């Protein structure tokens, strides 16, 4: 029997649509990831923050959100994104976050983030070059030209005022193309490229 994904043969439960996300990012290595977890734990302990934390091995900076797709990633988009990543040969740079704050969000799901001002210029320049490469290779990403570098630590029950934290910094060795199974905390690394 043939049927499309959203039709249901008699006697079978309907299939749930899934959201498959494609993005370029920088994953946090162990040491800065642990420091980020400690910032989150301190906010929970001292300010009573509650909410869903991001797993330490999933902490990242989203560089470019390519798109969200129902049930499967389009292979053409994946191939073009891989070509865009492979076209860059850029030097390594330092990343430093020295604040924590919150973004606005849905009630009870406010993104609690690491942010900064100084120490992110080289990251912004790198992201600009990556965005140009993505567009040059025929991909129309969801991300816009403007870029606010951050690491989401959790989705919290309320917003927090901005406060300084001990700087969390590192020199990324690579950037990656990730397929995220949204809502299931499953990441698949589709491509990785060194920063020299």
TrEMBL record:
It comes from the Bacteria. Keywords: Hydrolase, Ligase. The keyword Ligase applies. The keyword Nucleus does not apply. GO terms for molecular function: ligase activity. PANTHER family: RNA 2',3'-CYCLIC PHOSPHODIESTERASE. This is 2'-5' RNA ligase.
């Amino acid at each position: 029997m043939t049927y499309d994904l959203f039709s249901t043969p008699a006697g079978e439960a309907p299939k749930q649509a899934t959201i498959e996300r494609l993005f370029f990012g920088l994953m946090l290595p162990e040491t800065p990831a642990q420091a980020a977890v400690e910032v989150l734990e301190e906010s929970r302990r001292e300010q009573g923050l509650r909410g869903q934390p991001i797993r330490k091995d999933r902490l990242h900076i989203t560089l470019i959100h390519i798109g969200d797709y129902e049930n499967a990633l389009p292979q053409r988009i994946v191939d073009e994104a891989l070509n865009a990543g492979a076209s860059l040969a850029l030097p390594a740079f330092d990343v430093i976050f020295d604040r924590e704050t919150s973004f606005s969000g849905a009630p009870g799901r406010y993104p609690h983030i690491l942010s900064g001002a100084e120490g992110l210029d080289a990251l912004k320049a790198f992201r600009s070059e990556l965005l140009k490469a993505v567009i040059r290779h025929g991909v129309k990403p969801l991300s816009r030209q403007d870029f606010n570098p951050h690491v989401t630590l959790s989705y919290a029950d309320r917003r927090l005022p901005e406060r300084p934290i001990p700087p969390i910094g590192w020199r990324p060795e690579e950037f990656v193309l990730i397929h995220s199974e949204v809502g299931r905390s499953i990441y698949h690394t589709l491509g990785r490229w060194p920063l020299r």
